[in-house]
Amino acid sequence: MNKKLPFGLIVFILFLIFFDAVQQKYYIDTFGLLPEGTDLSLVLLLKKHFIRWLIWGFFSVPCALIIWRILVSNQQELPVKSILLTALLIFINAAFSLTIISVYDIIDQQLSINFNLFLEFLTFFTFQKGLTFLMASITLSMILYNRSRAQTIESQFVEITDLKRKSTDLEQALNMTTQHEPHINIKTGNKFQPIPISQIVWIQSDDYCVKIHTEDQAFTLRKSMKALEEQLGPFSFIRVHRVALLNLDFLHQINFDTSIIKLSDTTELPLSRTGAKALKNKLKQSAL
Nearest-CA neighbor of 182 among 227, 236, 218? Predict the structure, then answer.
């Protein structure tokens, strides 16, 4: 929360206390509102107005706590019900404050309390302090509202920052995994995309290039099939046809009668005689 806001409210209330005391002192002295021989000093008037605002502040604390709970529980838009409840709390706070101020002032003046006298004092203080109490309560509510919105934004920012950090950590972990795992670099414009060989299902010969098939997509690489066969031979790759280099990890089924190989992703590859022979030898070597 901007610390200037509550500080500004306190300074404004102190100004009102001073202004009300000076104004009251002026009317008393100018129009002779007190009986002859009596006097009210400015210090005493300041004390009286300070006590009245102190009473308002006392009732404002629980009121502010309830309003804060309403604002925090509605972190998006405030429903009409919450706005009306906040307004009702402000009026209740002002009513309680004016009631206690009226009773206190009657006792302070050593008068006998009765309903008519109480009503007279309450009416007087309602006109004198009612509007300023309401404005002060509304200002306090706005400060609390701004603080609750700021807290929501801060918590969302922390969540986004934490999410970004986790995303960055995951990306770094994936990059490290890719860097340490054998891979093939696919050039796209001025960029290189590493494809781990464990993700390569099969490689297809395509004129002077090859197509590298993963489970999700295919990449074109300008390289000979023969060169790839030599490089990938130690990693469970075997040439099953003139146009197909297979990753045995994705092998699903072999039909030597029809010369068809089925992969785990339902892809079918042709099987040549040379490829069938090499595949049988490879499978015998890896069999228990």
Answer: 236
On the CB side of 63, CA atoms within 13 Å amount to 26
Opening angle at CA 249, ends 266 and 192, nearest 5: 90
* Token digits of residue 174: 């994936």
CA-nearest of 241, 238, 188 to 218 is 188
d(Cα 23, Cα 16) in Å, to the nearest integer?
A: 10
Residues 232-241 as b or e (16 or more Cβ within 10 Å = b): beeebbbbbb
What is the C-alpha separation between 111 and 114, in angstroms, rounded? 9
Question: In what order do the strands lie in the sheet containing 260-263?
Answer: 251-255, 260-263, 268-270
Question: 111-114: which pairs have CB atoms within 8 A and are 24 or more residues apart?
Answer: none
The string of pLDDT tens digits covering residues 152-193 is 666 665 666 666 666 565 555 555 545 567 888 887 777 778
CA 47 – CA 219 distance, rounded (Å): 85
Put simply, whether the predicted model's pTM sits higher than 0.85 gets the answer no
Spatial separation of the C-alpha atoms in residues 68 and 86, rounded to whole Å: 10
Instruction: State pLDDT tens for residues 115-134.
Output: 999 999 999 999 988 999 99
Q: What are phi and psi of 247, to 5 degrees?
A: -90, 115
